[in-house]
Amino acid sequence: MAPLSPRVVVKVDLKKKPWQQDQPLHNRWHPEIPPVAEVKAGEFFRVEMIDAMGGVIKDNDSASDIKNLVLTTTHHLSGPIRVVDEEGVAAKAGDLLAVEICNLGPLPGDEWGFTGSFDRENGGGFLTDHFPCATKAIWYFEGIYAYSPQIPGVRFPGLTHPGVIGTAPSNELLRIWNDRERQLEESGVESLTLCEVVHQRPLACLPTTKGCLLGNIEEGTPEWERIANEAARTIPGRENGGNCDIKNLSRGSKIYLPVFVEGANLSTGDMHFSQGDGEISFCGAIEMSGFLELKCEIIRNGMQEYLTPMGPTPLHVNPIFEIGPVEPRFSEWLVFEGISVDESGKQHYLDATVAYKRAVLNAIDYLFKFGYSKEQVLVFAA
């Protein structure tokens, strides 16, 4: 007997705002955001998601929507999804959740996406000292290929993947996140040599009620106010996975996520048609709405068996990513080198970020010689 089609456990309506969805979305990490669905280990299921920015970026030539973007709203995630085993027993703290990506892609009828870079005064970015103004390119999809009217002559095969996938943190892990990120923000830039060559502010995205979505928790209630002031933003990757942005995390990949709360409370979003190494512009990815078709397995006590804490508590672990067998095949490429010397000629000590920045700038300057503007190269090569 042929296998059944995947069960749709989270469905989105692209005509509705993020907060109007039948299964409310969220854009924060917190253990008390309630699940919107439940799946069993081994079940084949489908999750739909809107784009990371919540549908506010439009299919046109103007970058004003990116320039004026309210950054506290990203990323819009589908879930949480509670995971139980075949007997109905929920995943428990200390387990590993193995999540297999069986299939993925854009939502039918919405086969387009966008790339851009933030304005220096609203988000900044890795190369914002060279590209201070907001930019945008629209991409249209033809199967595995993408092309952009803003960058004539470029058409390439993508490698679609989720930018964000993770489990809910425990209260203790959430406190660790907020304490260390607040300390970074309060310390300022003086101790961070990277800030001499990269203008990106704030240094950490701390909890804020502005733009906060907490799923089924009713806004305006005391509970919502408390959780909104505690819940972690989705911008960085953390111990729970989160904003990992691994460009090869496509069909056939498997993610081994630590479980910190009962049920695991899996969430995902920020679908990318493709992504450049390092995501140099604010989205060196092509952002889009999309779907994932997944299967989960619970590995009991897997955190202790397979993950080694790299910090002061057993919670200081990281997921393991098993990359699938599918990717575009390229036989020829150029490699651009960068060294740990910034644009002023100052030598830095083993600073891989400075070296990487120099390599990217070398690539942009090279491709600029072939008739593209540097802004065009930024959004298609980086």
CATH class, anyone?
Mainly Beta
Reported by name, the CATH topology is Jelly Rolls
Structural class: alpha+beta
As a percent range, the share of helical residues equals 10-25%
What's the CATH superfamily, by name?
Answer: Acetamidase/Formamidase-like domains
Radius of gyration: 21 Å
Low-confidence stretches: none
SSE ordering: EEEEHEEEEEEEHHEEEEEEEHEHH
Mean pLDDT: 93
Number of domains: 1
Largest sheet: 11 strands, mixed
Q: Count the strands?
A: 19
Strand content: 25-35%
* Envelope shape: globular
Brief summary:
This protein has helices at residues 64-67, 171-187, 222-228, 302-306, 352-368, 374-381, and strands spanning 7-10, 28-29, 37-40, 45-49, 77-84, 96-105, 112-117, 135-142, 145-147, 155-157, 161-166, 232-233, 237-238, 241-243, 254-258, 266-275, 283-287, 290-299, 320-322.
